[in-house]
Amino acid sequence: MAIGQFMAMLDIQIVASSLPQIQAGISASADEVSWIQTAYLIPEVVMIPLSGYLSRLWGTQKVFMVSCAGFTIMSVLTGLSSNIDQMIVTRALQGFIGGAMIPTVYAIGFTAFPMERRATAGMIMGLIISLAPMIGPTLGGQLTDLLSWRWLFFVNVVPGILVLTLVARFADFDKGDPSLALGFDWPGLIVMAVFLVSMQYVLEEGASKSWMADDRILWLTVLAVVAGGAFIWRQLAYRQPIVQLKCFADRNFSVGILINFANGAVLFGGTFLIPLFLGRIERLTPAQVGVTMLVSGVVTFMIAPVAGRIVRQFDPRLSMSFGLCLCAFGIWSGHAVTKNWGFWNFAWLQGVRAFGSMIAMIGGQLTAMSTLPPQLMKSASGILNLARNTGGAVGLALLSTSLTQQTASHMTDLTSAVGMSDGRAQAMMAGLTQRMSSMGVADPAGAARKAFDFMLSEQAQVLAFGDGFALLTLTCLCAAVISLLAKPAPPVAALQPPPREER
C-alpha cells in the first residue's frame, strides 16, 4: 500500500521538468500545458476526504484496489494521449481515482499496528511524503531523456500490478458497512467538491493572476467561502456525514492538523524555492538542479530511522517542537543566500531541514491520530492529508506572491540607494561602458545602463528569495509553539509491552 501511496504522490511532480517535451509532443500552448499538473491536483483534493467514507462503506482493501487499478489504467491512457484535451481529462481522472491511495495508508498505519509500532509506520509514511515530491522532477527528467515523456506515465504500470497483487493477497484488514450507502449525502458531496475545487484553483492560479484583481479569482474566492461554510454546516447537521468533523473535538487532532499544514507549507515551499533560485539566479541546467535537490532525498532516506527512534523516546510534543525548531534553523541559513552559493551551502540547508521536518512529521502524525477512537480514524486520515496538501498549496501561493512583491520592493530600495549621482555607481558605469566599448558594442553607454539595471534586478531577486526563506522559518517557529498546546503523552517506547520470559 505504501508503494501505491508513493506512486500517487510522485505523479504530482514527475512531469515538472518535462513540460516542454510534453508541450511539443501534443502540440499544446504554454498556458494549456500548465494544466497537466493542475488537472491532477484539483480532483485529487476532492477524493482525499471522500476516501474515508468510501473505506467505511466498502472496506479499505476494495477502495485501495479500485483506486490503484484506476490510477494505473489512467496512467496508460495519459501516456497514449495525442492532444491536450485528452491528456487533461485522463490526468484529472488519474488524480481523482488515485487520490484514495494516499489517506487509506494512514488509516491502516494507525489501526492495523499496535501503539508501539505506529512510530515506525509513521516513519515510513513520512519518508514517502518527503521523498516523492523531491525525486519526482529528477526521475521525470531522466525518464524523458532516456526514453520519452510518455514513460512518465507508463512507469506506473509494473508497480501498479505489483501493488494490486500484494494488496489482494495480504490487505484484508477490515470489512465495509453496506448500510452507509443508504442516505448518502449527495448535497454534501456537491458543496464539498465546489469548495475544494474552487479553493485549489484560487491557490494554484491566484499568484499569477494578481489575486483579487482578476474577476475569476475574486468570484471563485467568494464561491469557496460560501461553499465551505455550507459544507461545514451540512457535515455537522446531517445524520450520516461524508467527513466526520467531530475529530476536531480532540485537541491533539486539532494541533496535529496545524502541524501537518505547516509541514506541507515547509516541504513544498522549500522544494519550490531552491530549484527556482538555482535555475533563475545561478542558471543551472535541470540536471544540475536535480543533483542539488537529491540531497534532501538522500538525507531523508538516511535519517528516517534516526528520526523514528527520537520520536519513540520522547513526548511527541517535544519531538514536534524540536523537529520544527531544527527545521527553522536549517531554513534560516537561506535568508542570507547569495548568487555565489554553491552545492554545499544548499546541501546544509536541505539536510538540516529534512531532518527536522521528518521528526516533526512523525510526531505530528502520532499526536493527531493517537487519541482518536478507531471509528474516526478513516475520516481523520483524509482530513490530515488534505491539511498537508492545502498547506503546501497555501505555502506556494504565499511564496509566489512574496517573491513578486519583495523583488519590486527591493528593486525600488536599491535604485534609491544607488542613484547615478552615487560615486560607486558612476565608477561601475564607467567600467561597464569601457568594457562594452572594448567589445565593439555600437552604443556602449546604453548597453552599460542595461547591464547595470540587470545587476540591480538580479540582486533584488536574490534578496526576495532570502525573504522567502525567512517566511518559511517564521512558519516553522509558529508551528513549534503551537505543538506545545497538545496534551502531554508518554513516549511511544514506554508503551511497548514487556519482553516475554523464556521458559
From TrEMBL:
Family of the protein in this entry: Belongs to the major facilitator superfamily. EmrB family.
Recorded topology in the membrane: Multi-pass membrane protein
One Pfam family named in its UniProt record: MFS_1
Isomerase as UniProt keyword: no
Cell location: Cell membrane
Annotated protein name in UniProt: DHA2 family efflux MFS transporter permease subunit
Domain of life: Bacteria
Keywords: Cell membrane, Membrane, Transmembrane, Transmembrane helix, Transport
Membrane spanning residue stretches: 63-80, 92-113, 120-139, 151-171, 183-202, 217-236, 257-278, 290-311, 318-335, 347-368, 462-486
Record-level Gene Ontology MF annotations: transmembrane transporter activity
Coiled-coil regions listed in the entry: none
Domain Major facilitator superfamily (MFS) profile: 1-491
GO CC, alphabetical: plasma membrane
